[in-house]
Amino acid sequence: MLKELEKKKVFSGYQYRYQHDSQVLKCSMVFTLFLPKLDNKQTIPLIWWLSGLTCDDQNFATKGGFQAYAQANQQAIVIPDTSPRGEGVPDDDAYDLGQGASFYLDASQEPWSQNYLMYTYLSQELPELVKSLIPNFSGQEAIMGHSMGGYGALMLALRQPERFQSVSAFAPITNPSQVEWGKKAFSNYLGDNHHQWQTYDPIYLLDQEKVPPMLITQGTADEFYPNQLTEEAFLSAANQHNHQVTYNKEEAYDHSYYTIASFIGQHLAFHHDHLRDNI
Amino acid sequence: MLKELEKKKVFSGYQYRYQHDSQVLKCSMVFTLFLPKLDNKQTIPLIWWLSGLTCDDQNFATKGGFQAYAQANQQAIVIPDTSPRGEGVPDDDAYDLGQGASFYLDASQEPWSQNYLMYTYLSQELPELVKSLIPNFSGQEAIMGHSMGGYGALMLALRQPERFQSVSAFAPITNPSQVEWGKKAFSNYLGDNHHQWQTYDPIYLLDQEKVPPMLITQGTADEFYPNQLTEEAFLSAANQHNHQVTYNKEEAYDHSYYTIASFIGQHLAFHHDHLRDNI
C-alpha cells in the first residue's frame, strides 16, 4: 500500500514523500519524488539520486537545491532511502555498515541477505512503483548520487547500460574493492568471494563495449579525498576501454551538500543533454 | 573572542560559521556569514536573515538556497541565531517561548531581561562584529526573515528606517499584538504595558513619514495562515500611511523552507534593486 506522507510545492512543481511496503526488502520504505510542473504536454524522463552513508531520502530533498533545475529541464527526480529500515532489519553500530549503509547491492551473507537486497529493489520493485506515479513518463532514465550513492549510481549504470542514458556522481567511491569503506561493506555483505566483489565494482564493470556517458565532480577539500575516493584507477580503466568520463576536480569544495548544491545544475544539464524526449 | 567553527565553499563564495562571546546577551553565540567571491573590486552590501521559531543559524544556511543569488548579486548574507543560548540562559518547555523564540526584542521582565536583549544585539554588537568581517563592505544594509524572523525584519527595519535600504519577509507575523504567538511572547517578555508592545509591533511602527520599501511573500497553504499570519490590518495601515508594500500571495505554497527556496531569488533581486554600491 502506497501512503503519501508529504506534499510540498517547490519551484512550481510538487515534491512528494511516500511510504510503501517493500516485498523485496521485507520492510516499510520511504522515498521522495519531485515532479515538475509541465510546461506543455511533453513527456519527461526520470532521474535517480542515490545518497551517501547515514543519509535517507530527505538530505538531498532539503539541501540539494535541485528543484529549480529539474523544473526548468522538466525532469522527475526520485530519491530512495539508503537501505532497508526498521526494528526487524539487521543493523550495526558503525555508521558505515547496516542501516543507512547498504551500498546498493544484493547481500549474500548472513545476517544481511534477508533484507539487504537494494540492487533488486532499485532495479525492479521501486522503478515499477515510481514510474506509475509519473503520468507522462518518457520511458527514459538517468542516475546520479553522492559518495556511497555516487558508487551506487556508477555501479547500477554500468550493470544496466541499456537502462540508463547517462550517469553522474559527486565524490563517488569508484573502486570499492580497494578502499576501507568498500572492503568493509563487501566483506560483510558479500563474504570473501572476490569474484562476486568484482560484479559490484565499477572498475571491473567498465570492461564492456558500450556504457552510458559519465560525469564525476570531486572537491579537492573533500575530507575523504583521496583516501576513500580514489580516481586514478577508474579513469585509467575507463580510458583503456575507450569510455567517456568527464572528471571535474573542483578547487576547495568539500564532501558536503554545499558542493552538491553548487554543481547539481551542471549535473542535471548533463543528463538533460543525454535524455531525449520520446514524443 | 571570535572562533571560526566552519568554512564551506559554496557557489564560488565562502560560508563561515562563527562563535563569539556576546557581552549584550551574556552567553556564547553562533552566526553564519556568506561572503561572495568578488567579481571585481566593488564594495558589497550586507543583508540580514532572521529565522523563525525553533531555528538556529543553520536552517536557512542549509535549506534556503540563497547562495547562488547572493553570489550573482554580490551580497553578503548574515544569519544570526534566534535567541540567546546555553545552560545559564532562561528557557521554557514550549517551542514558542525562551530559547529559539526571542522575537528579536529587548525583554524587560524577569527572568528574561538579563539575556533576552536581541534587539540591542542585532542593532549594535553583532553588526559591528559582522561588518569587521567584510573587507569590502559598502556601508549599506537590508534585512529579511521568515515567520517570527519576518516579524523581526519588519520590526527592525521600521524602527531603524535610516539603517536599512529595504526589508522583505516570508510569512511574517505582521501584527504580533493581536495573534497568539505574539501575545504570548510580548506578555512574557514585556509584561502588561501595551504601550511597550506597540513599540515592537510593525503596525504601530508604520506611523512615520519614511520607511524602507517592503516585500512580503505569503503561501496560501501555509498551516499558520491566516491564523497567526494576518495581513489585512498591516496592509491597511501601510496604505493609510502611504507606504509601499508588495504583498505576494503564492498559491499552494506552505510554511516550509521549500517556499523560501522557491522565492528567495526574487527577494534578493528586490534588495539588489534597492541597494546601491557606494563606490
From TrEMBL, chains A, B:
MF terms (GO), sorted A to Z: carboxylic ester hydrolase activity; S-formylglutathione hydrolase activity
Transmembrane intervals: none
Keyword terms, alphabetized: Hydrolase, Serine esterase
Active-site residues (renumbered): S147 (charge relay system), D222 (charge relay system), H255 (charge relay system)
EC number(s) stated in the UniProt entry for this protein: 3.1.2.12
Enzyme class, first EC level, given as a word: hydrolase
Keyword hit for Endoplasmic reticulum: no
Recorded catalytic activity of this chain's protein: S-formylglutathione + H2O = formate + glutathione + H(+)
One protein family per Pfam: Esterase
InterPro entries: AB_hydrolase_fold, Esterase-like, S-formylglutathione_hydrol
Any single GO CC term annotated in Swiss-Prot or TrEMBL for this entry: cytosol
Tagged with keyword Hydrolase: yes
GO biological process: formaldehyde catabolic process
Similarity annotation: Belongs to the esterase D family.
Function, in words: Serine hydrolase involved in the detoxification of formaldehyde.
Protein name in the entry: S-formylglutathione hydrolase
Name of the gene this protein is made from: fghA
